[in-house]
From TrEMBL:
It comes from Stigmatella aurantiaca (strain DW4/3-1). This is Uncharacterized protein.
Length: 250
């Protein structure tokens, strides 16, 4: 009978007590939860400074300038620009400090809230980009007002046969261009109502309008507005003229 040596028995016993492992050593480690590495990278970085240095609105366009800086271990920044709470643009600057600029059109008359939000970023030597959304962010905001002109019109009877209308304007930027729109409503022919549409008008004009002493009466509804040098328009003001029936020529 074949007999095992003492060394052979020892090998069998050791193999039973300490089984040999297969595969790479890392396979026995728990898998790292998604996002943990990014969280570790972001835990020590922040946007150290964010400022609005200048800004203005002109002709419905908003332009704002500013500066930014990020902390050590961060080498870039993501910038989000909001107007009245709506995201308008996103920018990434691959540098630890510098300037930023936003420009956007379509502003209406009145005040508008501008906000810029900055997130620290890390860009490694391979170009991989990590944006730290959950820590280290900074925001700054400012209100800007788009100036607009205001207009008004008044029509007065200067004689029994004529009426003079006069427009005026204030505010806004620079000089003004006046516009007029008339809605003509002949009393005896309502089917012939006519609207002139907006046309470049003057500041004062006189029209034939015999005074009406009884119904029916012709009516003229006059609207007046101005446009300033920046292209912004005022709201339209309104006046009503009544004339003797037949004045409008129908």
């Amino acid at each position: 009978m074949h007999r095992l040596s003492r060394l052979g028995w020892l090998r069998i016993v050791l193999a039973g007590v300490f089984p040999m492992a297969c595969g790479s050593p890392e396979s026995s480690l728990a898998e790292e939860p998604l996002g943990t590495s990014d969280a570790a990278l972001c835990s020590s970085v922040s946007v150290s400074s964010l400022n609005i240095t200048d800004g203005s609105s002109y002709g419905g366009e908003l332009a704002v300038f500013g500066t930014f800086g990020v902390s050590v271990f961060s080498n870039a920044v993501r910038l989000e620009y909001y107007v009245n709470g709506v995201l308008k643009a996103v920018d990434e600057r691959p540098q630890p400090s510098g300037t930023w600029y936003f420009s956007g059109a379509g502003l209406t008359c009145g005040a508008h809230a501008f906000l810029v939000k900055a997130y620290p970023m890390i860009i490694d030597s391979n170009g991989n980009r990590t944006t730290c959304y959950t820590s280290g962010a900074r925001t700054v905001s400012q209100s800007f007002t788009q100036a607009c002109p205001a207009s008004s019109i008044s029509c007065v009877r200067v004689s029994s046969s004529h009426v003079t209308c006069t427009g005026s304007a204030s505010g806004g930027t620079g000089s003004y261009t006046p516009f007029v729109q008339e809605d003509l409503r002949p009393a005896d022919h309502p089917e012939s109502n006519y609207n002139t549409g907006w046309y470049p008008g003057g500041w004062s004009w006189t029209r034939l309008c015999p005074q009406a002493h009884s119904f029916p009466m012709d009516e003229i509804f006059v609207q007046f507005k101005v446009r300033d040098n920046s292209g912004m328009e005022s709201s339209a003001d309104f006046a009503q003229i009544t004339c003797a029936a037949g004045t409008l020529g129908y």
